[in-house]
Amino acid sequence: MGSHAAFAEALLWFLVFIYALAGSVDFGATFWKMVFARQGTEEAAEVAASYVSPLWEATNVFLVLIAVVLVGFFPKAAFVYGTVLLIPGSLLLLLMALRGAFLSYGYAYAKATAFHRYVTGLTALVIPALLVAVLPISDGGYVRHVMDTYRLDLHSLLSSPKVYAYILFGLTAELFISATFLSDYAWTKGDRTAYRLFRVAASGAGPAMIIAGLTALFLLPSPAWLAGRLQAQWPLWVASLIFMTLSMFALWWPRSDGSPSGYPRLAVVMMGLQFAFAHLGYGRAHAPYLLYPYITPQEAFTNEVMFRGVLITLVLSMAIVVPAFVWLWRLFIAGPRPRGGAV
Prior knowledge:
Layout: H1 2-39, H2 42-73, H3 75-84, H4 86-108, H5 114-132, H6 134-139, E1 143-146, E2 149-152, H7 154-158, H8 161-188, H9 192-219, H10 224-232, H11 234-252, H12 264-286, H13 297-300, H14 304-334
Antiparallel strand pairs: 1-2
Helix pairs in contact: 1-2, 1-5, 1-8, 1-12, 2-3, 2-9, 2-14, 4-5, 5-8, 8-9, 8-12, 9-11, 10-12, 11-12
């Protein structure tokens, strides 16, 4: 039972990692579309739009898989989180529906107004902020257990500097991941003007993300049970910083062929490794609890029959989803695609 619970928790954290990267590119591209369209730099705005248009719906598949794993493997945790996050979760669903509606409109009609760009761009910032806020909540201190009822202490949550540090880290990480990826996408499409703009955006968001991350994890006090475990993962944090540095250098490293400096594909790979090590460090530190101090993976774990059933369902689902996602990627992203007018 213990090994199965550990496997299920690792799978949950893996899906969170995949969605963190894919969702950051999706939401960030929508935000950069708004910013560059407002500045009149249509080359960069169109590059961002050409990524968002085909993939924004497919990205949400991974968010659904996270919910499936949580409900199927850890039903008690799903119940508690569903109760605690009823209000922010409802707001999240409302914003995602609003963003989806305006994206659909912008994709159907080439002449999307500035209002539509603002709605999709700003919701692309608020949605990740709500998602990232789950991390400090899971660390403990913001949930009250009274008379068999779990309640979110909104006053403590909204007045906590640590929560805002997490949110700031999530937003800057979103902008850095998306700008780094879009710099490579612009390079692949042969748009050197857009490439330079996204490279500058990534170079600004990267250091801001590091400062916000260090503040959230180490400069502001963490719960006693978590602080020592975070510090014990220092080799992973060091590796993450090294790959972050390599990613930034890769964007500006001179080329010998006369092209603009930088190796954006290498920067994307280094960026992925950076977040892989950081995610592994935080996941290992957080492993004893799904929600401190109320829910551990072992206590919330389902029975063996449900575990096998959900696991088989996930394997079959991934056998369909992954090839479909690869096909969609090759069709709309890797292959040639005309510049469009989506929001």
